[in-house]
Please model this.
Amino acid sequence: MNESILAVRKAIDELDLDGIAAIVEKCLEENLSPEEVIEEGISKGLETVGRKFEEGEYFLADLIMAGEVAKEVMPILKAKMRHGDDNSKGKVILATVAGDIHEIGKNIVGLILSANGFEVIDLGVDVSAEKIIDTAKTTGARLLGLSALLTTMVGSIREVVDASRAAGLRDKVKIVIGGACTSENLCEEMGADAYGETAIDALRIFTSYT
Ligand code: B12
Model:
């Protein structure tokens, strides 16, 4: 594994808010792609933090700090990704499901989609099924990306599926799920259309619907 990527993981794991920007800049200078920095560096670092939290080594304050460290470098990575006015691939609504406030993964998906020609309508976190479906109605967006990290909140995915059906939109929208607690099986169980493990998968899946 590349040394600089390992340094990104370490900076997240050690909650190094002051050091992370220089480390990420170094990765980009070495021509590592922003996607690689995100997937191999930031995401893997956050996995370690999550594990330490689970094992009782880290506390909630550390989780919050890890989130801040990851967010610190998003503007740097965003600036490096191709973006502009190209929204030719259409609109995607992104939301973290009701009851869940994890946003980093969703934001990364949004970054990658908007850098690749999608118009992203980001509704934020803890978003009700009603709001998501209302937005689909008012904007005409037919692609929905739902992020869920809490096992206890996966029922919120089914609520979106049900709300789309109640609104007569079920066969018109594609509901794609992702986030640490989701899976292929969960996708089937909730009646969604597709599951993506990473933000790159999100791009591949949404592109396949255009
Ligand atoms: C940072 C963090 C937080 C931060 C979030 C900060 C923020 N601004 O987002 C804070 C401190 C707020 C937090 C709070 C809590 N957290 Co937390 N948190 C994490 C942590 C460490 C990292 C999450 C993260 O950002 N990962 C990095 C991103 C990049 O990964 P990702 O979200 O999975 O996204 C990637 C893919 O999944 C995919 N993806 C994501 N969304 C989508 C959507 C689509 C459509 C697609 C296709 C793909 C896709 O693309 C992304 C990039 O590849 C995880 C541990 C972990 N390993 O996940 C725990 C974790 C998710 N949290 C956990 C818990 C328990 C909590 C709390 C309940 C703690 C508490 N006791 O209060 C609260 C919940 C609050 C709430 N109501 O939501 C548990 C969840 C356990 C479970 N399975 O239910 C975890 C797994 C930690 C653990 N091991 O115990 N947390």
